[in-house]
Amino acid sequence: MTEANTPPKKRRAKLKSFLGWAFLVIMLAFAGILYFQYYFVFGEGVKSGYLNYAVKKGNLFKTYEGKLIQEGFGAGRAGSLTSNEFVFSVENDSIFRELETNSGKFFDLHYKEYHGVVPWRGNTKYIVDRIVQMK
User: Fold this and answer.
1) Are 21 and 43 in contact (CB under 8 A)?
2) What does the alpha-carbon distance between residue 50 and residue 9 come to, in Å, rounded to a whole number?
3) What does the DSSP 8-state code read for residue 116?
4) Which residue of 57, 68, 87, 102 could cross-link 49, Cys pair, CB 3.0 to 4.6 Å?
5) 55-90 confidence digits (pLDDT tens)
6) Predicted local distance difference test score (pLDDT) of residue 115
7) CA-to-CA distance for 48 and 20, rounded, in angstroms?
């Protein structure tokens, strides 16, 4: 039998099978893209500086946010001291409490960087997951 001679029921079954597999492949690709954008750790490292603030804020999702002021030589005037800011989010309550009670001190913070931001994790793509050192 050729394709033209195939009964309509068999053609419909083949079409349903094809559409089912196509839907599955599209959903898996979509899930992979979502994972890569919001849950894949793009980078991690340590930033050092003076803790400027640590706050809990948000309209729907209350998240922990903070800012670290890093000192160093920048692209300003030659020999001038410039300030860089590292704005981050914190998921862990105990880490936030430690930061909140020691505002103004010098910290070395380990962070993970993601490609995108999800509202329940924080307002930034940088998530501090531990305090390396505090002075």
Assistant:
1) no
2) 71
3) S
4) 68
5) 999 889 999 999 999 987 655 555 555 568 999 999
6) 93
7) 52
DSSP, residue by residue, 47-98: EEEEEEEEEEE-SSS-EEEEEEEEEEE-SSSTT-EEEEEEEEEE--HHHHHH
Q: Pairing relation of β-strands 126-134 and 81-90?
A: parallel
Structure tokens at 15: 């079409």
CB 113 within 8 A of CB 126: yes
DSSP state of 4: G
Q: Are 54 and 90 in contact (CB under 8 A)?
A: yes
Q: Residue 110 has what pLDDT? A: 96
DSSP one-letter code for 111: E
